[in-house]
Each structure stands twice: as C-alpha cells, then as structure tokens.
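---------- Forwarded message ----------

FYI, see the Plasma membrane ascorbate-dependent reductase CYBRD1 record below. Original note from H. follows.
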Amino acid sequence: MCQYLEASAAASRSSCGYHRAEYGALMAMEGYRGFLGLLVSALLVGFLSVIFTLIWVLHYREGLGWDGTALEFNWHPVLVVTGFVFIQGIAIIVYRLPWTWKCSKLLMKSIHAGLNAVAAILAIISLVAVFDFHNARNIPNMYSLHSWVGLTAVILYILQLLLGFFVFLLPWAPLSLRALLMPIHVYSGLLVFGTVIATVLMGVTEKLIFALKNPAYSTFPPEGVFTNTLGLLILVFGALIFWIVTRPQWKRPKEPNSVLLQPNGGAPEGMEGSMAMNFGNMDKSDSELNSEAAARKRNITLDEAGQRSTM
C-alpha cells in the first residue's frame, strides 16, 4: 500500500512537471512574437478577402440570390473565398496556436476536422450555385481550366477530409497505417490549399474578362482594379498560411509517453504537430526515471495512464 501511494505521488509530480514544461515551452517558443505578428496578419488579410468579396458581389455585381440568375452565381465566389480559402487556412494552422497546446490532441483534431468539414460544405454549395446558374442560362459546364482544376480540388479535398476522419480521428486505424499515411495527409492538405488559391485567382480573372465589356477590363475600370486587389489579398493570405505551417519551430510539441495518450495505443499522431523540444524542467529527467526500480515503474505506469488520459 505504501509503495502504491509513493508511486501515485511520483506520478502526480510527473504530471505537474509536464504542465510546467508545457508552459515553459510556450514561453520559450522560438520567435513567439513573430508568430503572433504573422498570425494576426494572416487573420486580418483573410478577413479582408472575405469582406472584399462581399463588396464585389454586392456593389459591383448587383447582390445575391437563388433564382438561376447571375445573383445565384455570385454565391460562388463568396462561399469559395469564405470557406475554401479563409476557413481552410485557419484549419491548417490550428495546431500551431501555442495557447492550445494544453488542450488534448483529440480536441484539436476534432476542431481541425470540424473546420475542414464546414469549408467542404460551403465549397459544395458554391458548386451547386454555379451548375444551377449555367443550366438555367444554357451555358456549357466544365469547359474551362478553372472549372477542371476547381472540381479536382473539391474532390481531393473531400477525399482528404474522409481520410483524416476515418484514419486519424477515429481510433480504428492501426499504428502502421497512420505512420504510412501521415506524410501524405500533410502534403496533400497543403497541395489542395495551394491549388484552391490558384483556382480562385483563375476564376476571378475569368469572371472579369467575361463581365467587363463597357468599360473593358483592359481599360482599368474601378471594378477591375478592386477585384485585382482582392486577388492579391487572397495570394498574400495563402503565402502567410504556408509560412506559418512550414516553420518547424512553431509546431505543436510532442506529448511525452504519447503511446498512453492514444486510444488505440498508437504514437504517430504526435507526428501531426510534433517537434523535438527540451522538457528539462520536469521534476525528473529521463535518466533519473530509468534508474528507478522496475517494480516502481510498473506501478507508476498504471496511474499515469489514468491521469494523463484526462489532459
């Protein structure tokens, strides 16, 4: 009994040490102020992109509707920029927010999946608006490069969402499968986001060429200049998201003993946002823990599994 109480106390100290280490890692995050500056800039530019899109369709393109006219088509750029660009960008960097590192990985994965699901729904509705408008006006579908690349991006995005849900969010996939698919999941997510940015820029240009006849797009009319500025904002937003998500010093720290934290006993989920960090301010170093008796470590493991599962 005394041995078990001693083991419980040691486990509690170790758990507290993890939280202190986590706080220390947050405070010592390399370039923390730079991260905050880029994050605020990305959110501001992304929000401005959404506002500029609304101004474009409400002021220059006569508004929104769902009646088979051009007003229905106007939902397409609004929903794409809001969901497929802005919300997807936030979903990509949600693991990088240092104040969320104290939250459980399952919670963060759920938020990541939820944001991507909202973006996918908005993208699908935007496609419905386009096809409905084309069919009502007897305009051919899927003839432009913009439409080919855009539909491909939507299909890949939905497949990416389903892959992430069934393999990484639900505790069914085996450890080896998660380890195999994680690099593909990360790469394909960035590839789809970059493809969406390129598709939006193609779509904006295509719309302006078709819509601006008098005055022509080539004469620098106010709508053309305004919408070109919108395209630049979207491009800058994408560049900021790519920069934030590719900096190794801003990744979510790997949780210690991650095998115990996973419902299926798998460790690779820490790979989603993990990086090598020094948790030297924990109560005990790894070498000190290894020097303890094997029987005591077995008792500690049982108690740690119960306590850390709530973190």
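H. also flagged this: The chain has a mean pLDDT of 80.
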